[in-house]
Model the fold of this input.
Amino acid sequence: YKNFEKKVSELSHETYLKELSKMCYSSSLIAGRKFYYVKRGMIFLFSSIIPWILLVYAISNVINMTDLLKR
Done:
């Protein structure tokens, strides 16, 4: 950390702003990619709800049918 602090303190104002803008740009690319994958994951999550509901409904009907057959 001390080497980093020393190097940063030696930077000119213009160089510091350039480095800061590069970091902001890199961070924005990472954030954009992250939110793309989060959005994609949410779409898959919500689209998987329908098959789960159908499966639970089908299983509940099978269980009800076996109960009726036992009587």
